[in-house]
Amino acid sequence: MGADTKALRTRIRSVDSTLHLTKAMGLVASSKIRGASEVMYKSRQYSKAVSEIVNLLTSCHECKKSPYIKDNDSEKTRIIIIAGDRGLAGGYNANVFRLAREYEGAEFIPIGKRACERYGNGYSSAEKFSAEDGAKLSAELCKDFAEGKFSRLGVISTKYVSIMTQEARISWILPLKADTKTKNVGVIFEPDELTILNEAVPTYVSGKIIGYVRESYASEVAARRMAMDSAGKNAQTMIDGLQLDYNRARQGAITQEITEIVAGSGE
Predict the structure, then answer these.
(1) Which residues, in sequence order, are bridge partners of residue 81?
(2) Element (DSSP H or E) covering residue 94
(3) Residue 25 Cα distances to 19, 89, 100, angstroms
(4) pLDDT (average), residues 18-39
(5) Domains of the chain
């Protein structure tokens, strides 16, 4: 019985240590959720505004001559894949990598430590990915696309639905599609629509990339918060069960000792 109670005490201490860790990580994630969400919503607004301008330009007949609309002869696909900087975020990273397996022939550009570990050199932090990083990456991608080095540009990221739900998705950025629904009414572009579109595309691509990174980071923080809450509840349940077993084992040991004392005194 003594050995059983000792093993149970050790197990309780171990699980209790894990419980403290999950609580601490949950608190850190909680402190970051509000800031990450605010940045995400602002990025969404900016991305939407830039998209509206590009849609207006692509509705112009002259813009069909743009290298960003025309299909090129390359069959190569480049995909930016955004994962987390850390683990312990439930299925956040796994969902991204599962979706990426459907595009194994593509050239991946990783953002985030976990993505870099799997796909090679890239941007090692999604949390610290800056507007300057987005502009630099966009300029390189737009230049290569215009030169025909690849034919499609996509982004695998995570969509923030709610604090409890995040969904891995792929979004295609290039080539642009001519917008036949938007009507260019009373808008005059100087010097001309085609020139403005070609100048605007790198900004558009940069805005899209930054928006996806910000949304993925907010999703990572939310997923980690929920994962730590769940882990904490499971750890507490396990401690309660182990404590009950410990009390029973201890009571059994005490009862056995009393029985042995009574039996010895009667001899």
Answers:
(1) 110, 156
(2) helix 92-100
(3) 10, 10, 28
(4) 85
(5) 36-223 (3.40.1380.10)
